[in-house]
């Protein structure tokens, strides 16, 4: 029988909010991160650098999302940094606090292990996408991932995500802003997306059908908190 999915936020105590202005660094490469964070409001970009200095966005974290788990694995965290994409409010716990809470409530350890496994699987899917697919398919797969991570269903069966700049989407995909702009315009003409300065609506079912026609493998959708329809 499979182990039931646990939510780490069930076992972590409330902490005072920390506010970050748009563009502020939450932690950077100069110092190892020492805290586990949850986003209460806003968006956070978590990026990584390899030993050659190549930089890429690891993920974009929205409300109720965790990041900073690098604090639990030591020096690896020195290759990671996090930036607020808009005005953002966070809660955080030091690595020592997290360990203490795990000792008191072992289910927190289970929940964090499950979270880390999910993040590893999603990163594996992204690496495969970069290696196997051409840029148009990679952009579509990235949009589906963003929809799964923090999309909100609309009344007309679209999935709405907070608008991201074309530059940020390009960083997430691993391509140029100009190519992302061209591909988003193509997807809009095809009726697969619609967007404004405030939001991006994705026709998830139609986009998945088109990807299947191109024989692209669609990763299993991530499980997120239940969300209501967008207004």
Q: Your description of this structure?
A:
The protein is 36% helix and 23% strand. With 231 residues, the protein is of the alpha+beta class. A hairpin with a 5-residue loop joins strand 4 (44-49) and strand 5. Residues 222-231 have low confidence and may be disordered.
Secondary structure layout:
Blueprint: E1 18-20, E2 25-27, E3 35-41, E4 44-49, E5 55-61, E6 66-67, E7 80-84, E8 88-94, H1 95-104, H2 106-132, H3 135-150, E9 152-153, E10 159-162, H4 166-173, H5 177-189, E11 193-195, E12 199-202, H6 204-213
Antiparallel strand pairs: 1-8, 2-7, 3-6, 3-8, 4-5, 4-7, 9-10, 10-12, 11-12
Helix pairs in contact: 1-2, 3-4, 3-6, 4-5
* Mean pLDDT value: 87
The total strand number stands at: 12
Q: What share of residues are in beta strands?
A: 15-25%
What is the helix tally?
6
Query: Can you tell me the CATH class of the largest domain?
Result: Mainly Beta
Strand order of the largest sheet: 1-8-3-6
Largest sheet: 4 strands, antiparallel
Radius of gyration: 18 Å
């Amino acid at each position: 029988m499979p182990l039931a999915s646990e939510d780490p936020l069930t076992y972590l105590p409330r902490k005072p909010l920390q506010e970050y202005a748009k563009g502020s660094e939450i932690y950077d490469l100069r110092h190892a991160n020492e805290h586990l964070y949850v986003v209460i409001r806003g968006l956070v970009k978590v990026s990584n650098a390899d030993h050659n200095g190549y930089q890429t966005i690891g993920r974009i974290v929205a409300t109720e999302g965790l990041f900073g788990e690098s604090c639990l694995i030591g020096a690896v965290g020195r290759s990671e940094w996090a930036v607020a994409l808009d005005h953002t409010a966070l809660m955080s716990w030091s690595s020592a606090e997290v360990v203490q809470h795990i000792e008191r409530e072992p289910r927190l350890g289970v929940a964090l292990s499950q979270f880390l496994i999910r993040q590893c699987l999603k990163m594996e899917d992204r690496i495969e996408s970069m290696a196997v697919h051409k840029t148009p398919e990679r952009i579509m797969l990235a949009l589906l991932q963003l929809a799964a991570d923090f999309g909100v269903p609309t009344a007309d069966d679209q999935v709405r995500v907070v608008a991201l700049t074309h530059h940020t989407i390009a960083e997430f995909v691993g391509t140029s802003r100009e190519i992302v702009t061209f591909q988003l315009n193509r997807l809009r003409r095809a009726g697969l997306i619609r967007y404004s300065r405030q939001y991006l609506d994705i026709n998830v079912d139609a986009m998945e059908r088109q990807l299947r026609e191109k024989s692209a493998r669609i990763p299993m959708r991530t499980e997120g908190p239940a969300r209501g329809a967008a207004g």
